[in-house]
Amino acid sequence: MIKFYYSGAPNPMKVALMLEETGLAYEPIPVDTRKGEQHKPEYLAINPNAKVPAIVDGDVTVFDSNAILLYLAEKTGKFLPPKGDKARGELLSWLMFVASGVGPFSGQSVHFRNYAPEKIEYAINRYMYEAQRHYAIIEARLAKQKFMLDDAYGIVDMAVWGWARLIPNALGEGYWAKFPNLKRLVDEISARPAAVRAIALKDKHKFKTEFDDEARNAMFRHLTVKVA
Ligand SMILES: N[C@@H](CCC(=O)N[C@@H](CS)C(=O)NCC(=O)O)C(=O)O
Prior knowledge:
By secondary structure, the protein is of the alpha+beta class.
């Protein structure tokens, strides 16, 4: 049985969706990042990056959400484009585009809009600009086709869904109007039974809800360590 280390945050949710879609047997193991559980030595042995998600599948350990999506897709042969170099090139490009662009810029946008102790206009504008530029690229693609890769729902759509469903949090409420095709994809995926189960998963465990000093110190370690 796959061990799935998770919280209800966007990156773990992509993997929860994939696990539910594939029907693989898995054991969800909560990692309460607001209590600092991501920094415990036993978890660092699984993910040295001290973030969720991670999975342990027998003697295989995989961390980083998009790597896990690819691993599970290859393991099951599901939610992948047809075989061939051309399709593989597209799959890798879009998967890495989401991993290296959509995720980090959305995350920083959420951070500077909602959590930074000071409202720094330059940082807010930069990350909102970059996050929305990435979503606009996805929007243009989805204006021409139903899913991210050809006509089939797959792991790139799941990767997009993880972050895009939080656009109001990353960019502000009004932003959905700019991305109607992305909204269509997000709504369609969110209505799938696997997504409903993935979203409900976190309610099986008690995660800390307060964002207090303990949470800030666990998740924003730069607050106490000066490097520049
Ligand atoms: N590149 C990683 C990023 C993982 C990540 O940032 N996870 C967040 C939740 S979405 C986390 O663990 N935050 C806790 C922390 O930063 O301490 C991935 O895609 O899995």
